[in-house]
Amino acid sequence: MRARIFGLENEYGLIFFPNGRVYLPMEKILGYIFEGLIPNSWPSNAFLTNGARFYQDTGCHPEYSTPECDNLHDLVTHDKAGERLLEACLPVAERRLKDEGLSGTIYIFKNNTDSMGNTYGCHENYLMRRELDFWRVTEQLIPFFVTRQIYTGAGKVSKVAGKAHFFISQRAQHIHEKTSSSTTSSRSIINTRDEPHADAEKYRRLHIIVGDSNMSEPSTFLKVGTTALVLGLVEEGAGIAGVELEDAVRSIRDISRDLTLKKKMKLEDGRELTAIEIQRLYLDQVARYVARLGDPEADELVAQWASVLDQLEREPMGLGRTVDWIAKYRLMTGYMEKKACTWDDPRIALADLQYHDVDRKRGLYYLLERDRQVDRLTTDDEIERAMSTPPQTTRAKVRGDFIKFAKERNRSYTVDWTYLKLNGYWEETILCMDPFAATNKRVDELISASR
Amino acid sequence: MAQEKKQAKRRESDKKEETTAPNPEVVEKGKTLKKDMDELLDEIDDVLEENAEEFVKNYVQKGGE
Prior knowledge:
The structure holds 2 protein chains of 2 kinds.
Chain A: E1 6-11, E2 13-18, H1 26-37, E3 53-57, E4 61-65, H2 72-99, E5 104-109, E6 122-129, H3 134-147, H4 149-152, E7 156-160, E8 163-167, E9 177-180, E10 188-191, E11 203-208, H5 217-235, H6 248-257, E12 264-266, E13 272-274, H7 275-291, H8 296-314, H9 324-339, H10 346-354, H11 364-370, H12 380-386, H13 395-408, E14 413-415, E15 419-422, E16 429-431, H14 441-449
Parallel strand pairs in A: 9-10
Antiparallel strand pairs in A: 1-4, 1-6, 2-5, 3-4, 6-11, 7-8, 10-11, 12-13, 14-15, 15-16
Chain B: H1 2-19, H2 24-30, H3 33-47, H4 52-58
C-alpha cells in the first residue's frame, strides 16, 4: 500500500443525569471533563502527549482527533485510546460536581445520533496527492462510500412514521448531498474541506463525514483500510468507471434500511446492483492492483474484505464478532426474544445508546467484549500505552515528545498540527510540515540541550 | 435503594472481571455460541439504566458536524 497518513475524529455524545432537579449547562460539564484530561490548561492546549487533540466541537461535543497514523493497527489503537481517555475523565468530573453539591452521573456515548434526530460525526481524514482531479476522484469514490456501510455501519433503532425499525447505519439518514463544503447544515458523503496540515502544494485532505463511529475494532480497521486501498487505486490513475449511482443519497438510505442486503440500487448506466455487488466491483479492481504490489499488509486486508463480503452474502448474522451493526442487532433481537418485546420497547432504544457507552462497566459493546463475543485487534495494554505515547512513525511522535518535554519542565507551549512553540523567552516556532517525518532536528536539539 | 442494589451488582461484576483469566480460545471452544448469548442476555438487565423511557427521552444533543 502506498504510504499514507490518516486519522479519525470522533464527536462524542455527552449528558449529565443529576440526582434531583438541577439544570447545568453542558459547557460546565464539558469543562470538568477537560479538567480531568488536561489539568489547568484547557482550552488553550488541547494537544496531548500522545499527539492527539481534544477539543470542544460544534454543539458542545467533546471531540477526540487521533494523532497522525500511517498504519491501521496504530489507528485502531489510538481511536480506542480516545475512548479510554474520556472514560478516565468521568469519575474526576463527577467528583468535581459532587464537591459543588451536584451529585449525578455523566454518560459519554461514542455514537452519532440522539433521541431527537440530531447528529454528530465520525470524520475520516486521508492525506492524498494534490495533483489529482479531485472531482473525478470523488465521483469514483461515492458509490464505495454509499455501500461500505454494510460492514462499517454501527446500527441504529429509529422511528419511521411512529414505528421503530433497525437501520444499518447511524449516519445514513442524515446525509443530504454527494459533496458539499458544509458539515452541519447539509451533510454530504464527501466534504470538500481541504486542510492538509502538510505542504499544500503536494497534498490535499480527503475529509469523509459519512461514516459511523465504531465500537468494533475490526469495523474501524475495515472502514479505514478498505478506503485507503480504494484511494490508492484511484491515485494510481486506475479509473473505476461505470459504477455511478443514479441517486447516491437515496441509495445510502435505502441500503441502511435493507437488512437483507438484497435490494438493488439503480446505476446511471441502467444496471441494477446490490450493495454487495457494488463493493465487489471495487474489491476486484483493488485486488488486481494490490497483487502487483507485493505488500503483505495490503494482501491481508484484501483477503479480509473479500471474506466479509462473502459472509454478508451467505449469512450476515455470522459476522457478529466483526461488524458493529450485526453485533448490536444480534444482541437486541436476542433480548427482544427473551423479554417478548418489540423494537418499540424503551429498553431497546436505551440499549441502542448504551451499546456505545465508553464506560466499560455500562457499555453493551463492552459486555460483548468481556464475554469474548467480539474480535479484538489490539490489547488493553496497547491501548493504555497509546493514551500517553504517540505513534512512533509519524509527525505525532515529534509533537508528543515536544509536549512531554514542555510539561516536564512546566513550560507553557503552543502547539498545532504543523508547528510547535515554547512560549516565553525562547520563542522560535518549529515548523513540522511533513506528517511522515517522525524526527525533527530542532526538537531533538532542544531536548538534548536541556538534559 | 434500587440504585444502591444496582451499584452492588456492578461491583460484583467488576470483581468477576478481574478474576476471569482471559483465554479466548478456551472460552470459544468450551461454549456454544447460543449458550454464550443466553448468559450474556441475562447480564444486559444488570447493565441497562433503570428508567429506560426517561433516559432515552432526555438524551438530546445539539447537532454537531
